[in-house]
Design brief:
By secondary structure, the chain is an alpha+beta fold. It is 25% helix and 23% strand. The protein has one domain: SMI1/KNR4-like, CATH 3.40.1580. The longest helix has 11 residues. This is Cell wall assembly regulator SMI1.
Length: 139
């Protein structure tokens, strides 16, 4: 097993449900599985991720958590609302996946489920062709 660096404390299904309610969106199954294994951080394996991922946002109460980043990005641009930030690259760009609505809430993205990257310097959102699973570590 590859050592993991700078991850937060372990999370369980209850913590993930709480995050979903705060976001008003359901986490995709692959992302839920990832967070049950690793609460953010990055693999300490000296390998460069083939898609440029440098690290993953944690599930906690910080401004740089999944929820904190979602709030900040939604406030910055309507184009970023309804997406779940889950990872970042070495340049500070943010990888997002559209969230499905939590029943009874009024948020969530209607989309094809493709991963997007928000290029912060250009304030541009780019649709990517890779599946969410391609951005998550394999173990």
């Amino acid at each position: 097993m590859i050592p993991w660096h700078e991850g937060g404390p372990p999370v369980d299904d209850d913590a993930l449900r709480s995050v979903e309610l705060r976001l008003g969106m359901v986490l995709p199954a692959a992302l839920r599985d990832f967070y049950l294994r690793h609460n953010g951080g990055w693999a300490d394996d000296d390998e460069i991720h083939p898609l440029g991922v440098h690290g993953y946002f944690p599930i906690d109460d910080s401004d740089t958590s999944v929820v904190g980043m979602a709030i900040a990005l939604s406030a910055q641009s309507d184009r970023l609302a309804g997406s779940i930030p889950f990872a970042y690259d070495a340049g500070g760009n943010t990888y997002l996946v559209p969230g499905a609505l939590v029943p009874g809430t009024g948020s969530g993205a209607e989309s094809d489920g493709r991963v997007r990257v928000w290029l912060q310097d250009d304030d541009e959102v780019v649709l990517l062709d890779n599946a969410l699973e391609d951005f998550l570590p394999r173990e």
